[in-house]
User: Which sequence fits this backbone?
């Protein structure tokens, strides 16, 4: 029972070529989804069969792409929230060198990364290219700022004065290097 697939595919191609693009598009939308037009041409589904499958009102259901296209403003709103949160990290009000402020800042960077992923999913679904790139940049920004704080404390990066090797404030000097009281001051 081996079939000659080349002959079968040639027959399907011939049937598809005999139908105009407008008819094929109308058939696929009327049947409820893409690919149904090809199935109708090749699989024996007729127009009468398709009209029986319609709802009682007689109107064809709207394709999913048209329903979600009107809500792209929601995806843009998600991007604006994510970008606002990422920009807010630049104005973090507390010094995040150690202790609770450091843990709060690190959690905020993780939150920004999650907001970026959340908005990236929405922009991907709505096929919004520029908004998707912005979402991915927010994600990278959140991960980068979090890594800048975490990596020296887990021993992967070189600790500096601003980013010590410990999470706690014990033994860490809380004064800035320019206002350190142990350095002698010279009169002007």
Assistant:
């Amino acid at each position: 029972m081996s079939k000659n697939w080349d002959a079968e595919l040639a027959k399907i191609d011939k049937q598809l070529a005999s139908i105009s693009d407008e008819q094929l598009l109308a058939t696929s939308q009327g049947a409820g989804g893409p690919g149904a037009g090809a199935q109708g041409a090749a699989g024996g589904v007729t127009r009468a069969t398709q009209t029986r499958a319609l709802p009682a009102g007689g109107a064809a259901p709207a394709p999913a792409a048209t329903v979600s296209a009107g809500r792209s403003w929601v995806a843009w709103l998600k991007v604006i929230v994510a970008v606002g949160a990422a920009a807010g990290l630049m104005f973090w009000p507390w010094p995040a060198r150690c202790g609770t402020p450091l843990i709060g800042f690190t959690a905020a960077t993780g939150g920004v990364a999650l907001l970026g992923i959340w908005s990236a999913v929405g922009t991907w679904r709505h096929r919004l290219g520029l908004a998707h790139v912005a979402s991915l940049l927010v994600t990278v920004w959140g991960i980068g700022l979090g890594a800048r704080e975490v990596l020296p404390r887990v021993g992967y990066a070189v600790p500096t004065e601003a980013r010590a090797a410990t999470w706690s404030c014990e033994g860490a000097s809380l004064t800035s290097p320019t206002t350190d009281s142990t350095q002698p001051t010279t009169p002007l």
Notes: The CA atoms of residues 27 and 37 lie 5 Å apart.
